[in-house]
Amino acid sequence: MIGQAYLAGKFTLPGTSITLNRMGYGAMQLAGPQVWGPPRDPEAAIGVLRKAVESGVNHLDTSDFYGPHVTNQLIKRALHPYPKELVIVTKVGYRRGADKSWIPASSRKELVDWIHDNLRNLGVHTLDVVNLRMGGDTGPSEGSIETPLTVLAELKHQGLIRHIGLSNVTPRQIAEAEAITEIVCVQNFYNIAHRGDDGFIDRLTERGIAYVPFFALGGFSPLQSSALDALAVVLEATPMQVALAWLLQRAPNILLIPGTSSLEHLRLNLQAATLRLPSEALADLDAIGRIPGH
Asked: What is the pLDDT of residues 134-148, one digit of tens each?
């Protein structure tokens, strides 16, 4: 498994010297059920993080509202002091309610507090990349993001943040954002079956901005899932491997952050870096994308 992440190719974040292996790792699943509380086996979670980095993963996606605080603390335990090439991408803009709910939190005080929580729990003086998470549970919603983004831009000017990205946003919002600060990445919901961002991705590709899809298998209808399962059998791969390989071939600026708490699933996910889908398979996957959803 060593070195598999390198085989997905590399991408340099715009306006930076940060070059990432396109196959990364998302830490959300390291927290307990419903992304709440500690994992059942913290030592196993630490083992997954260490193996990911040993295998060539050089960017981690996390947030201090995972747990809350759990995944950042696990990352610190597992990897601090961090390898020089490791980039940790965190996000702010939400908080967790006592009932495990996800609550928008983008006031100045909330954002400043979350940045300092991330700094403390990760054990760093500056955060590599911070994504501002907007919108709601069902996707982005139009509206100005100037106020919260200006707060992050001020914290960047203070040296607490190196680079800023956006999550769950629309093309209009990134246009607004770029008048305030440079944006290095966009993290939105996108996969084989949910392609509403196709045009958005193409525009970001032209401008060299990274696009990071989440939920590679999220929101599939039963018919879409069964079609993907059947194709995966033909390709002698798992459905997740096919979904990840398709994303890697979709555009050169797409970075992946598949998450897992299992060493075996980590191994399988990283193997997707070497899976090249033939044109026939790509056509079949396009057909899956046209199958009606829910």
From this structure: 998 878 999 999 999
